[in-house]
Amino acid sequence: MIELAPPVEKAFLVAAPLKGVQPELVDEYIGELGRLTDTAGAVVVGEIRQRLDSPHPKYYLGEGKAHELREEATAQGASLIIFDEELSPAQGKNLEKLTGIRIMDRAELILDIFATRARTAEAKLQVELAQLQYMLPRLARMWTHLSRVRGGVGMRGPGETQLETDRRLIGLRIARLKEDLERVAKQRATQRKGRENVLQAALVGYTNAGKSSVLRGLSGTDVFVEDRLFATLDATTRTVDLGEGYEGLVTDTVGFIRKLPHHLVASFRATLEEAGEADLLLHTIDLSHPGWEEQKQVVDEVLAGLGLGEKPTVLVFNKTDRLPHEEEAAWRDRAAALYEEPSVFVSAVAADGLEPLRTLLREKVQEVRAEVDIRLPASQGATMAEIYREGEVLNREDEGAVVHLRARLPAAVLGRLRQRGVEVLDGA
Ligand SMILES: Nc1nc2c(ncn2[C@@H]2O[C@H](COP(=O)(O)OP(=O)(O)OP(=O)(O)O)[C@@H](O)[C@H]2O)c(=O)[nH]1
Ligand SMILES: [Mg+2]
After folding, report:
1. How remote is the CA of residue 216 from the centroid of ligand 2, in Å?
2. Residues 167, 148: contact at Cβ < 8 Å?
3. What is the spatial distance between Cα 220 and Cα 239, in angstroms, rounded to a whole number?
4. How far is the CA of 340 from the centre of ligand 1 (A)?
């Protein structure tokens, strides 16, 4: 963990993109790495870049560049070197030996941020699991300062080295964490029951896109918002007033980022299950960010990896208040034309800036079909026809002059029926 207390850690950044990556993107990658470093509580004291045809096995960087890194990082008094690229366990070990400075890669940095920010028990379990899984293949590097000695009566099997013992213990801990997470996931599933007849939407998107701000604005409740990466780690669900008497449930989720460590994605599956259960994904995009198109692509890829690529999705283009006023219409047209998904343009901070989204959600609620039991006098032919036309009749029993229907119907139709005095019972 990075110490927040003084002396503040001084971090030296390294970007080694492959040739062919556009220079503006490299600027953005390293800018984002700087923001991650800042979020972790360290200060950036310098950076170095190298374009590579392919990573070198020994130091990731070329030999000469690696020596340059040692000199510059030492000159700046760096206590930490952070690579934007994922290093193999061997590369990390070699670089640490060469520079005498602690080496981290982007994945490790993100894991560290998650570790310091996890608040709920579930988030903590998920982060610990991801960290252990990341650590396991890198244990050898972490143990280089110790000789592989035997010892510790009762802790290890015969002939085991310290390294093997640690591996075994970590393996056990991982298994235990997985069990605990499974239990939490089951509890969640139970909590979700009974929500079936309500529209559930989940906010997903790149970190800092404004998901929590959108939920705060929609629900009028206090949701934690911060201009830092990964402000939110837990799924929070709020009831949202959609106007005209309609309500829906909206869930806020953890943000995504490029090169998200895959252990972390896997560990957060339980939290993201909330998104999996949703009827609708609200993919929130910071339209004022110069790299929003690439951010959207990253989010699409993570969603696809989670098996959520085919979910009904609305693109929520946020922060429109930040666009240059005279260009706003052109931006909107361009953004909307790029994708197949329906889109809305909102601002989570401007007055009434979220109304387009609220309206869209209300329309969706009106489309949601609830399963109900209806009792109706057989003489009401017109109403009967309406039910058959607008919904799906699952079962029908004629009991003399009364017809008993089990049907799926849009909320709007149910409202009309109830207004007319038809007996409608929630079929859940
Ligand atoms: N100008 C402007 N700023 C916004 C808008 N929406 C969010 N922000 C700001 O953007 C920053 C990030 O907002 P959050 O709501 O925390 O973003 P998030 O997507 O939940 O981020 P993570 O939880 O970190 O993934 C905060 O400083 C917000 O005040 C908007 O519509 N306009
Ligand atoms: Mg958030």
Report:
1. 10
2. no
3. 10
4. 25
Structure confidence by residue, pLDDT tens digits, 73-83: 999 999 999 99
Q: How many domains does the chain have?
A: 4
Do 120 and 143 meet the contact criterion of CB atoms below 8 Å apart?
no
What is the pTM assigned to this prediction? 0.79
What crossing angle do the helices spanning 269-277 and 121-135 adopt, rounded to 10°?
120
What residue type is 43 in one-letter code?
V
Are β-strands 369-377 and 423-426 bridged in parallel, bridged antiparallel, or unpaired?
A: antiparallel
Q: Are residues 269 and 315 in the same domain?
A: yes
pLDDT of residue 147: 38
* Domain assignment present for 67: yes
Does ligand 1 lie within 6 Å of residue 39's CB atom?
no
Mutate to test the pocket of ligand 1, among 211, 225, 252, 345 (most ligand atoms within 8 A of CB): 225
Q: How does pLDDT run across 257-293, given as a tens digit for each residue?
A: 988 877 777 777 766 777 888 889 999 999 999 889 9
The finding on whether 230 has its CB within 6 A of some atom of ligand 1 is: yes
Q: For residue 252, what are the β-bridge partners?
A: 203, 236
How many angstroms separate the alpha carbon of residue 171 from the centre of ligand 2? 32
Q: Do residues 186 and 270 lie in contact, with contact meaning Cβ atoms separated by under 8 Å?
A: no
Last residue of a domain, one of 324, 349, 366: 366
